[in-house]
Amino acid sequence: MTFRRKIYNKLLEWKSESDGKSAVLIEGARRVGKSTIAEEFARNEYDDYILLDFALETRDTRRNFEDNTGRT
């Protein structure tokens, strides 16, 4: 069982205020549950979602993301 954290309410607030027009960045120390809470939020609050772990994705996937978002 995953315990809801304070961040979950912040994510709900972001979702309501952004109206799908902005991204959210979750920062924190390693192994504190950032990915877990992000996936739980996506699973509970959206009909569908895509989970990208750039440590596991192919070079082509990373390049596509960089080319289409301006991120390097």
Please give a quick description of this structure.
The chain has 72 residues and is mainly alpha-helical. It contains 3 helices and no strands.
Structure description:
With 72 residues, the chain is mainly alpha-helical. It has one domain. The protein has 3 helices and no strands. The termini are far apart. The model has no long low-confidence stretch (mean pLDDT 88).
* Shape, principal axes of CA atoms: globular
Radius of gyration: 14 Å
Mean pLDDT: 88
Strand content: under 5%
Class by alpha and beta content: mainly alpha
Largest sheet: none
Low-confidence stretches: none
| Total domains | 1
Helix count from the secondary structure assignment: 3
Report how far apart the termini are.
36 Å
Task: Return the string of H and E elements.
Answer: HHH
Beta strands, count:
0
Helix content: 40-55%
Q: What's the layout of helices and strands?
A:
Blueprint: H1 6-18, H2 34-45, H3 59-69
Helix pairs in contact: 1-2
Which features does this protein show?
72 residues, 0% strand
